[in-house]
Amino acid sequence: MMLDDRTLRYLSTVARAGSLRAAARELGVAPSAVQRTLAAAERRVGCPLFERGPEGARPTEAGRVVVQHAQEREDLDVHLAARLSRVTAAAEGGVTVALGLGFVEDFATRVLPGFMRKHPRVLVRIVTGGTGEVVATLLRDDADLAVALHPAPDRRLRVVRGTPQPVGLACAPGQSLAAGGSESITPSALAGERMAVLPQGFGLRALHDDVLRAHAVEVDVVMESDSQPAIVAAVAAGQVVALLPPVTVKRAVEAEVVRLVPVDDAHLSRVRAALLTRTGRRLSPAAVALLSSCQAWFDPEVLL
């Protein structure tokens, strides 16, 4: 029993997107094409791979096995390409990576040192921006790969790896909203809070505004900055609170100067980080090598 690469890609996309319709948008095909592919795969394996319901499609136990197999095959392909690149030409050249602002520090400390030790003659160029800027840079071919927070589905983008980045409320440990251990809060608890936000045009700012609007919550925005380290510093000082993903506050949480409190909101809890390339673009050996290094970084236990 074998499932071809196209089928495995469709099944992985359904699992990641959470529904057949969302997967179809990401793949750039009709929902009926995804439905037919899924039905054919289930006939092939002889059991259901997804449970369909009002909230979308969730993998069954067999489905999780197949999706994991698909990811392992993709990882093996990337690993093979990386090994070949080391044999052929990855020792030299250049690679450009576009990073969402919240990922810069983690990339610089967890990915870059090891990569540069292995490939000392490769020039690594880093460009940064919000999710929209990062995606646009990738689609213009001004970057070989990108890391972005919760990019919109786009068939021009290939999601090489995704990992959860549930947005929570960053606050100082002594702040009243941090009380209660690891218990979550509701969006209504933010009413009247002094908050820091990113400027308009950033995906995280749009998410902030959408969540507060959906729950009819009014807050006091007292700081606006495109520097996430500046926002984290203000949070640690107890001057503001902010809605931020785990990767942005990881160091501050480890230092116990900031707490990240879960927020009971479906949109915030479903936010994911994505490692991206442009669909159809042939990567240079240096880019393939860096992509391989980023794969391990996207292990949830590492990035979270």
From TrEMBL:
Cytoplasm as UniProt keyword: no
Xref: Pfam families: HTH_1 (PF00126), LysR_substrate (PF03466)
GO CC entries: cytosol
Keyword DNA damage in record: no
Taxonomy, superkingdom: Bacteria
Keywords: DNA-binding, Transcription, Transcription regulation
SUPFAM superfamilies from the UniProt entry: Periplasmic binding protein-like II, Winged helix' DNA-binding domain
Annotated ranges, domain HTH lysR-type: 1-60
Gene Ontology MF term list: DNA binding; DNA-binding transcription factor activity
Family (UniProt): Belongs to the LysR transcriptional regulatory family.
Official protein name in the record: LysR family transcriptional regulator
Organism whose genome encodes this protein: Ornithinimicrobium pratense
